[in-house]
Amino acid sequence: MKTILAIGLALLFSVSATAGDKKSAASSMDKAAMQQMVQSSIQKFKINDDISVEDAIDSMMLRANNLNFKLVADLPLSEQVKAMGEESNYMRILAFCDALIAKKMVEHDIIFAGFLPCRIAVLKDSKGQGWIVTMNMDMMVKGVTLPKELQPLAIKVRDTIYSIVDAGVNGDL
Q: Which CATH number fits domain 42-170: 3.90.850.10, 1.10.1040.10, 3.40.630.30, 3.30.310.70?
């Protein structure tokens, strides 16, 4: 996701700068291309029918802990919406991180700071189906040229996030 967005933004800014006008970068790209870029940068996974969102979250937290990824944020968005007087389907954002890897990535290129920490959303749709949504980590690994010493770290982050998601989808405790 980082890569696609970074590449897309760089392309947008270069097109805008080349045109020499004050239009926003987003307006120089057609809506269909932007929509495709966003769609390809995100992945969504259906939580197995016999797994509650609470069990999915418990499984993800346990897996993250076992893989030494720290839960650095837990944002219960649906609770916040309800506290503001509105009804909401279940929405909760979990953020996981390996701070030492994050530090190295940001030292390499500050743009990575915009994607930290790795977020995983857990939600229910209007039919009550549970979903897990996160960025397409393969785009980060395959779409960015990283120095040789950072490549295995990027792969570790990708594999860890996907393992955490898999634990949630399947309720693996």
A: 3.30.310.70
